[in-house]
Write a structure and sequence with these properties.
The protein is of the alpha+beta class and 413 residues long. The protein is 39% helix and 17% strand. It has three domains: 201 residues, Sandwich (Substrate Binding Domain Of DNAk, Chain A, domain 1); 32 residues; 169 residues, no CATH class. Strand 3 and strand 4 form a beta hairpin.
Length: 413
């Protein structure tokens, strides 16, 4: 037997704890128990009640290798419960304070990675006397050491621990037994026992599993609902087809602007999608005034022949640098928002803002060369819309006029 603590322990609200992790909740610690003095309903912690509301009580903690003899008759109230620590060292913790004492549950050299279930016996004497605020003492009296009635509480406590199931040496078998009231004398103990019995029983293992399953399903349902709402926002309020879901790149601007056109383009053949992409890129470059630059001919030729875009034309930044060095190209800003346009929609307001048409048009060339013809068409259309700026309605009408199949395909949806 080892004495892990023997001294004065401060208590408040008639509580003190043994914990190997977090502090216990009072109701959860005692729910389902018959005793109200030693709450062990939460793994890793013990919730211990005292007669003294506030003060310092004599407290002893003993660790035994096997079940000790029955509590001596001087102990008026005795209860037992099972304790499953979460660490090899527990702490004796007063209310509202840090650890008062470390309680090592293993000896030096012993395997600390495995912790048995412990049986604990909590013994008390003088609980009723401890409920007296002054403990039967004169509140103005001090002893020879200067201690007041708060330091000389009449109640005492003993906490014994031993591995569950051990009665003659060796490790316990880990079988957890229900808590028990072995001796009841004080009115204080009777009060707390009655309170514990009035608590609703904790959920069974099956109920806990079902509750966790319900929470998981509800979480999955909410996540799915959030994903659907997010998808609807991205796709203009209409769920996309599986084909559209496979498309990557800068396509959501044209989706929000003209979802019918997007569905129409997605519904035509791949060869038509590629034609739309090249046509939209040429339109953008024409509006920007750079479609007829001689050194761009290899790019247009490659696109028209269905060949990959030459690498030197795939970087809009490099193209812009080269164009800025071409004296025959005059860079201007498109005019600002036309008169009468409402600024209520920030998306449309941004499209109406002044733009550098060359900067807006250049991504259309790289877009037209994308390997996925649908992505190529949608990205090139968006680059052209950005280039046309407030004249975009003119461009969108031209798309439907030049490629009437996109209008009929969109209607079928």
């Amino acid at each position: 037997m080892r004495v892990l603590f023997d001294g004065k322990a401060p208590v408040a609200y008639g509580q003190i704890y043994v914990t190997s992790r977090e502090l216990p909740d009072m109701s959860e610690a005692f729910a389902g128990q018959v005793n109200g003095l030693c709450g062990a309903g939460q793994p890793g912690a013990l919730f211990l009640m005292t007669g003294t509301h506030s003060g310092r009580v004599r407290f002893t903690v003993e660790l035994h290798d096997v079940e000790p003899p029955a509590a001596a008759q001087e102990w008026e109230d005795v209860v037992e419960a099972s304790f499953l620590p979460k660490a090899a060292v527990a702490d004796l913790v007063p209310w509202g304070e840090g650890s008062l004492a470390r309680l090592p549950l293993t000896v030096e050299g012993q395997d600390a990675t495995w912790q048995p279930v412990y049986r604990v016996r909590y013994c008390a004497m003088g609980m009723d006397q401890g409920r007296d605020p002054f403990g039967g003492l004169d509140p103005d009296e001090r002893d020879e050491d200067g201690h007041t009635y708060l330091d000389r509480r009449p109640d005492r406590y003993l906490l014994c621990l031993w591995p569950e199931g051990t009665t003659g040496g060796g490790r316990g078998d880990g079988v957890t037994r229900a808590d028990a009231i072995l001796r009841q004398t004080s009115g204080a103990a009777a009060y707390w026992h009655a309170w514990a019995c009035s608590l609703p029983s904790p959920p069974t293992l099956w109920e806990q599993v079902e509750a966790e399953k319900h929470k998981r399903l509800e979480r999955e349902r909410r996540d799915q609902e959030y994903r659907m709402r997010h998808e609807l926002r991205r796709w203009g309020g209409r769920p996309p087809s599986e084909r559209l879901r496979q498309v990557h790149g800068n396509i959501f601007g044209i989706v929000l602007l003209d979802r019918d056109l997007v569905d129409g383009v997605a519904g035509v053949a791949a060869v038509t999608q590629r034609r739309i992409a090249i046509w939209a890129a040429r339109q953008a470059f024409t509006v920007a005034g750079i479609a007829d630059l001689d050194w761009l001919r290899p790019a247009w030729t490659a696109l028209d022949r269905g060949m990959p875009l030459p690498a030197e034309f795939a970087d809009p930044t490099a193209l812009r640098t080269r164009i800025q060095g071409t004296s025959s190209v005059r860079l201007v800003l498109q005019s600002a928002r036309p008169a009468g346009r409402s600024t209520a929609d920030p998306f449309l307001t941004a499209l109406d803002a002044p733009v550098d048409p060359v900067a807006m048009a250049l991504p259309a060339l790289a877009a037209a060369g994308e390997s996925d013809p649908l992505q190529a068409a949608l990205e090139a259309l968006w680059a052209a819309v950005s280039t046309y700026a407030f004249r975009r309605a003119e461009f969108l009408a031209d798309v439907r006029r030049v490629f009437p199949a996109v209008a009929s395909s969109g209607l079928r949806r």
